[in-house]
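This section describes the prediction task in plain terms. A model, or a person checking by hand, is given the sequence of a single protein chain and must write out its three-dimensional structure as a string of tokens. No templates, partner chains or ligands are provided. The sample shown here is typical of the held-out split.
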Amino acid sequence: MHPFLAEIIGTAILIILGNGVVANMVLNRTKGQGGGWIVITAGWGMGVYVAVFCVGKYSGAHLNPAVTIAMVAAGKLAVKMAPLYIVAQMIGAIAGACLVYFFYRPHYELTDDGDAKLATFSTAPTVRNIPWAFFCETLGTFMLVLPIFCMVDPSLDMGDINAAQKRSYTLGLGALGALPVGLLVFAIGMSLGGTTGYAINPARDLGPRIAHAFLPIPGKRDSDWGYAWVPVVGPIVGGLIAALVARLIL
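The expected answer:
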């Protein structure tokens, strides 16, 4: 499978299962309504596990522009590969969000809360303090990306694109292994997710937010574009800091 297609499929799986668990918890008259935060974080962790398990050997399973940019900054991925990865991730995220909406459409019609509907697509802070939310997203992503560098085989040289192709783009979320990275995301959600909803992934937030803007969702609110830059820029900054720290300590 080509890495471009792998990133589309992997990111779509991530969003279908991740945003799907949120929809199952917050929309009216679903079987899982009111299941709570632990169910949401577990669902996201398992979503990451499945996505990484499916495409890790083909693209490294970045599934996240912040991861891709951090890999480039650390010299572990060729610069020319970054646009391909990021475009694929955005396509997969938008497609996944649309599929969640079509799957739960009757429940969107039964739900009056516009904030709850938006929550099934994108994140929002519990306290509307933008600098603080930016810090939370930055630290959360730092705690995602740094272990990617610390837990992989240091002998892997991903700087050369030909070597990268031979190793099936090993470095990425898939470098940790599907189960460890799923547990890592579950841990981040349980420990650091209660402030902003731990987007920790620009595609995960921006792609579904774009879908929310154009889908004919009954009774929807605005897509909160005033906040939208935080879960994009914060994760990128967190990933870059993690890449810098990794280059210093490893």
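For orientation: Residues 3-249 form a domain with the Glycerol uptake facilitator protein fold (CATH 1.20.1080.10).
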